[in-house]
Amino acid sequence: MLVYSVSYIAASGLFFIVDMVWLSIMASRFYRPTLGDMALSGVNVAPAIAFYILYPIGLVIFAILPGLRSGSMITLVDIVWGSVLAAAAAMAGYLIAIKLSY
Q1: Is the pLDDT of residue 16 over 80?
Q2: Percent of the chain with pLDDT over 90
């Protein structure tokens, strides 16, 4: 149980801090100019709290614990590969949608 707690606290703490730094820097420089009126004027607190509680649980269950159990870097490699693949698929979908919309 200690491993679950420590990994959750570490993952959620780092995730929250890094995301807050990113959002505080990029919200006005990137998201507001890009999203315009689609962006909310303030923070929707309830969904934000739910996200910052639940997302690290997923990290613990699907990334941290399997890595600890296997004792290898395969989980890290799999996470990086999944991130690259998801980014490539999203970019391909976006570019195809742009081409088809004109």
Answers
A1: yes
A2: 55
Secondary structure of the chain as H, E, C letters:
CHHHHHHHHHHHHHHHHHHHHHHHHHHHHHHHHHHHHHCCCCCCHHHHHHHHHHHHHHHHHHHHHHHHHHCCCHHHHHHHHHHHHHHHHHHHHHHHHHHHHC
Q: How high is the pLDDT of residue 101?
A: 87
Domain ranges of the chain: 1-71, 72-102
What is the pLDDT, as a whole number, of residue 15? 95
